[in-house]
Every structure is written in structure tokens, then in C-alpha cells.
Amino acid sequence: MIRLKIGDVLVEQGIITKEQLLRALEIQKQTGGVLGEILVKNGFVTELQLTKSLSRQFGLPFASKVNGLLILSDPLILKDLISQDFSREHGLVPLFLRDETLGIAVADPMDVITMDNLRILTGKNLMVYIAMKSEIQGLIEELYTGQAGKMEEMAKQASQAAQGDVVEVTDEKADLDGTTVDAGEARVVQLVNQIIRQAINERASDIHIEPMEDMVNLRFRIDGVLHEKAPPAKNLAAPIVSRIKILSKLNVAERRLPQDGSFAVKHRDQKIDLRISTCPTFFGEKVVMRILNKQAVELNVDKLGMLPKQKEDFLKAAQYPHGLIFLTGPTGSGKTTTLYAVLSQIKSPELNIMTIEDPVEFQLRGINQVQVRPQIGLTFAAALRSFLRQDPDVILVGEVRDQETADLCMRAALTGHLVLSTLHTNDAVGAAMRLKDLGIEPFLIASSAICFAAQRLVRKLCEDCREQYKPEKGHLESLGFTPVDMLYKAKGCDECAGTGFKGRRAIYEIILINDKLRSAIQKQANLDDLKKLARETGSMSMKDAGFEKVKEGMTSLEEYLSVIMVED
What we know:
23 helices, 7-stranded mixed β-sheet, alpha/beta, 568 residues, single chain
């Protein structure tokens, strides 16, 4: 594979112009030096932009103090492994030693000779990170001038002082206190708390702890994207998993089968639930912790991201006394949050609202919530049958997975109940086709359905650093959009941890079912005809709704195109 030169990469990404590149190359020809440093020195590009472009160009992880990867682990060992002179001469700094793997941060990933020499010098495998030269120099000072030891002690004291920030909340405290805790176990307790605390502070939705052959991967999913974090020591992998299992009341001795559990933590006076899943892999058990932070989720219809007409149509459907509302989209697209927000909007003392979910993600005051328990026969269908004898006004069914559940939803909607549920389809009108595939008669779908909706999540541009630019006219036209003068793109700053994005919002397609659509569904019209009818009745496609968000500057064109299909 031919790798583009860094100057060409920066031009391709729209960070510098061709004229700026030519000017920098002319300066390089006259004075010599590294092209990247010339670009930074002349203000054509920032050091952060240059380093992140190098990271993308070489496929190496970007490390900075902001994203938590540029930190020293066991500085006394690192100082003995690589001399100060070698670090300063070659502009690199050791970060951690995990068994036979040495983590290092470099500013120049093209210096392969130094990498080879370092492998020979240390006898270790290298895990290379790219970092800004200024941050590497600062870390070299910390490591070799005695500041690292001081900072390590300060970090330890801060960690001990913050120990109360994350406190296990369990029903059986004796389970935790009954075991003897030695110094090693205390270290693991502190490490698990630290990982959870960091994930919550960084707005992560999931924590991935993954054992590999010679190390442990630690990754946080933030705004839908996984980010690598400083890994724990390989020998702590099993104790970390055991600690999480104890908190989740799982079988610590069972390492051959997947297990699911949960526990809660208290962080800054807030109770936060964590859902745990373990899975045996070749090198040990992988753990994923889903963070369910109700305080971080706004159950407010106005904050979901619907356009004004979409919000009006969706709330109009939710006010119907009976009928069926289906919200579609892939797993993790925010469907449950949308339905919770709608329930929060319509709930009142006059309504009996009941939900059946798998699992119950957030507890909603004034709403009766039931969790699926298949092992004892409490399935979606079984709960729905029970609900119909509980005098409900509104029923939320977490997901329609089979014909029996779909049939019961139809029956409930036709007998005077408002039913909200979800399906996995690519678009809103696809819900009608999916129900037909499940064995539901088209006349029943047409009679009961009042609204089909679909949604996707896109990352929001960071408002502190987003940049305006003029898009190429031909590119927008090739996507079927009317050209616009200005759009916004991601840049990266401390507020967004250098990603250029902060938070997520949903893009919707909302279709109110009218007589024309009802008739077409009953006559088993194909998907293209249903889409055409939906457009004729004033429903905006997800493609167009998403581009409205791009024009507003809420998200970037690249992020939009990574989520929304534009060929319809």
C-alpha cells in the first residue's frame, strides 16, 4: 500500500490548502528541516492537528493527557529501562511496561531505525503511540528530573482522597466485607473504582476490559466510538474480573460460560447503575460494563433532536387513545430513550402506564415497569397477556421479536390501548414489511398502526472548536443535496478531548399513518411505493432531516454520511 505524504494528507483532510503546502515545501527547500514542524511554525496547522493526522496516516493510537493515554506507569522501572539521553535525543518517552510489551510515545513515527534500536536495547515488544512533541518533552521532564515520583505520590493521595467518589451500593454488604483484603486486593479495589470513575467523568456509555496475549486492553465507548485508555497490568486482569464479578454477584469460579449481572455505584452523590456482561475468550474473560447514568440522559422531548414538524406529529400520535406506534432503528440508536421521553411527556395521574422491558434501563417515577425474565417464563408475550388484565391505558413493549408478541400488540391496540414498541428495520415504513414477515395480516397492520418512526444517532460537533468551511459544490450535488455556502467540521480541543465531537443527538423520520398509507399497506404495496406516499403526505425522509442538522452545524457532513444511507 502506498502511503500519502503528510502534506498531501493535510490537504486532503482540508486542514491546509495546496498553496500553504507549496509555501512550506519552498521553505523546507531553502532552510531544511521537517515539513510538519515548518507547517506548525508558520501557523498553517496546529501541533494537535498535525499529530492527529499522523495518527490517522500511520494507523497508530493518538495519546495525550486529555484522552488519558499519556501517563507514566511505574516510573522507577521506566527510568531504568531507557536512559534520559536516549529519550531526549530521539524525542520519545516510555509510558508503561506490561510483561514483554513496552508502551512508548513518539512524535516522529517515521523514525523506524530508532524503533528497531529500542527493541534491541530493551529486548521488549513495542506498542507505539503518537503524541505531540511538546507533551512528550513535558513528560520527559517529569520522568527524569524527579517530578514523576512527586506526581505519582500526589496522584496516589488524590486517588485515596477520592476513594469515596465511587462506593459500591449492594444489597448484601457482607458479601464484600466477608473476604480478607490484603494489600494486593486493596490495589485491585482501588483500580476498579478508578476505571469506573474515569469512565463516568468522560461520559462513557461502556467500559471494555479485554485480555490479550501479552496485555489487557482498556477501552471506553464515548459518543458511540471506542477510545483506548492506559491499560492495567496484565497480571491484574484476573483480579479485576473477579472484583467486578463479586460486585455483580456472579459466580467467580465460573470462567467457561458467559454471565450477566449488575451493580450500582455512588458517584458525586448520584446513584449510577452498571450492567455487566462477561464472555470467555482465548486469553481470559472479557468484561463489558454498560453505564446507565440517568442524570446524563435528558428525558425531554425538546432535547431529543426532532425537527418541529416531527415533534408535533410524534406527540400527536402519542396523544391518541389507542393504536400502535413503532419506533425502528439498530441496537444502540437511542430508541428506548426516545420512548421514555415520550412517556414522561404524556404521563399523568389519569393514565395507567405499564412497560415490559429487557432490561429496565431507567426507573421512571409514576410508571409501572416490568423486566423480562425468560428463565421463569416471564417473556414479552406472557407479560403482555397479564397487562391486558391490569386495566392499562398505555403499554410500552421493549421490542417485538416474534409473531406471538406482535399479535398481542395488535390485539391490545385494537381493543382500546395505546401501544408503543420497537423493531429492527432500516427505515420507518420498513416496520410494515417487518410485521408482515412476522406473520401479521396486512389488514391488521393497517387497522392498528398510527405512526411509524425511525432514528439514528450522530455525534454533535463540539461548539467550542467546530470550524466553518466551504464545501465542494459537486460533492453535495452528487449526494442529491442543494449546494450551501458554509458547513461545519470537527477540529478538536480540550473540551472534547481532541475528538471534535461532544455528545450525540438523534436524527428522525416520523410518518403519521393517514388513509392513503393505510390503504396502501392493506393492498400490500411495495416498500418504494410506501416511501413515495410518505413523502407526498409531508413526511421528511431521514436523509433530508439529517442534512438539516448538517446545515445547522449540529453535526458534520462526514459524521452524517457515516450514519445515514443517502441513496433513497
